[in-house]
């Protein structure tokens, strides 16, 4: 059994990804975590559907996200060994998060504020990098701590010694698995989910400030 996790940095082939890379001047704009060498399934915080860019949460990404619609993505994969029993604890923790995924949402304010070096914390809300950094810190991996700067560039530098691959997204089957990214949505659904997303964020900010 391969007791390791795979951290996947990606230059996502979307308009939003391109804007982020230009703003941050970094090669990669997204980061995910996989429990398998083939990275067919990855955990992260990102948009749930391709057609709704501002509605996001905890997702089980298929590698097909990086090979479909807008072209092939470039990725960088880092392998981090995880000794037992921490690997089992980590896997169980991800399974619990997935079973409770409706409670977890994308921290859009933190993603925007990171461009001006602010990092607002909101209950059960994460960006891709705060999620992956939090996992690594939680299980004492790769020297990552909760106080590290939560940016893709900083995490990429920290994990540079663990790099095992850099190049086009690896080939895979055409199985999207549990990833709802390609699902077609209506305009009404897009408006509703986006409004609900920002409403949940606002409510959690108010509760946290109370």
Strands, count: 8
What is the mean predicted local confidence, pLDDT?
Answer: 91
SSE arrangement, N to C: EHEEEEHEHEHHEH
Distance between the termini: 47 Å
Structural class: alpha+beta
Q: How is the biggest beta sheet arranged?
A: 4 strands, antiparallel
Which spans have pLDDT < 50 for at least 5 consecutive residues? none
Radius of gyration: 16 Å
In terms of DSSP E residues, the strand content is 15-25%
Gross morphology is globular
General description of the model:
- The protein is 34% helix and 24% strand.
- A 4-stranded antiparallel sheet has the order 2-1-5-8. Strands 3-4 form a two-stranded antiparallel sheet.
- It has helices spanning 15-24, 86-99, 108-113, 128-138, 152-158, 187-209; strands at 4-11, 30-34, 41-49, 52-62, 74-81, 105-106, 125-126, 163-168.
- It is globular and about 45 Å long.
- With 210 residues, the chain is α+β, with helices and mostly antiparallel strands.
Notable features of this structure?
single chain; 210 residues; alpha+beta; 4-stranded antiparallel beta sheet; two-stranded antiparallel sheet; 6 helices; 8 strands; 34% helix; 24% strand; globular
Brief summary:
Helices cover 34% and strands 24% of the residues.
How is the secondary structure organized here?
Layout: E1 4-11, H1 15-24, E2 30-34, E3 41-49, E4 52-62, E5 74-81, H2 86-99, E6 105-106, H3 108-113, E7 125-126, H4 128-138, H5 152-158, E8 163-168, H6 187-209
Parallel strand pairs: 6-7
Antiparallel strand pairs: 1-2, 1-5, 3-4, 5-8
């Amino acid at each position: 059994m391969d007791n390791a996790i795979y951290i996947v940095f990606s230059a996502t082939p979307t308009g939003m990804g391109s804007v982020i890379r230009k703003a941050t001047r970094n090669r990669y704009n997204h980061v995910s975590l996989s429990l398998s060498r083939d990275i067919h399934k990855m955990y992260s915080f990102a948009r749930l559907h391709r057609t709704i860019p501002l509605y996001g949460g905890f997702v089980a990404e298929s590698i097909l996200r990086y090979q479909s619609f807008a072209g092939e993505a470039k990725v960088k994969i880092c392998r981090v060994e995880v000794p037992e029993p921490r690997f089992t604890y980590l896997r169980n923790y991800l399974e619990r998060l997935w079973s409770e995924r409706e409670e977890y949402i994308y921290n859009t304010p933190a993603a925007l504020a990171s461009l001006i070096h602010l990092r607002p914390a909101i209950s059960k809300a994460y960006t891709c990098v705060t999620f992956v950094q939090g996992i690594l810190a939680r299980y004492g991996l790769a020297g990552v701590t909760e106080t590290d700067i939560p940016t893709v560039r900083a995490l990429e530098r920290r994990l540079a010694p663990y790099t095992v691959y850099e190049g086009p997204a690896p080939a895979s089957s055409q199985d999207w698995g549990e990833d709802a990214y390609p699902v077609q949505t209506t305009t009404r659904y897009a408006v509703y989910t986006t409004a609900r997303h920002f409403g949940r964020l606002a409510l959690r900010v108010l509760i946290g400030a109370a």
